[in-house]
Specification:
Belongs to the UPF0102 family. It holds the Pfam family UPF0102. Keywords: Endonuclease, Hydrolase, Nuclease. The protein has 127 residues and is of the alpha+beta class. Helices cover 44% and strands 29% of the residues. The termini are far apart.
């Protein structure tokens, strides 16, 4: 019984570490995008259908951003599966439906890769 509890505790610790790493990565991505002239509209926007890490805007373009912390750029891009893309698009449809000015906005789906020891890498129109 004690062994099972230790494994459960380890799983919980790993999950919390991953969650913290994700939040720090989202924060770094948000600061990076702010420095590039984007305005942050939402962080961790959640719906029943999915979650969007960041929603940002620059001019008339609203950008739905997925943030991935990985060891390399290719790993970050590949980590955004077709299923994840579908969930992000569904969540973005809900966000846009709640905006009165949505008809005037262009939209885009980007990825920001957070790679250890490097500046974030912004991939526009990633999917």
């Amino acid at each position: 019984m004690a062994q099972r509890d230790e494994r459960g505790d380890e799983v919980t610790r790993k999950r919390r570490r991953a969650e913290r790493r994700g939040h720090v990565s989202e924060y770094l991505a948000a600061v990076f995008l702010l420095l590039k002239g984007y305005r942050i509209l939402a962080v961790r926007y959640r719906t029943k259908g999915g979650e969007i890490d960041l929603i940002v805007r620059k001019g008339d373009v609203v950008v739905f951003v997925e943030v991935k912390a990985r060891v390399g750029e290719r790993e970050a891009i590949d980590a955004v599966s077709l299923f994840a893309q579908k969930r992000i698009r569904a969540a973005s449809d809900i966000w846009l439906a709640r905006r009165k000015d949505a008809h005037r906005l262009s939209q885009r789906y980007d990825i920001v890769a957070i790679i250890p020891g490097r500046l974030p890498r912004h991939f526009q129109d990633a999917f």
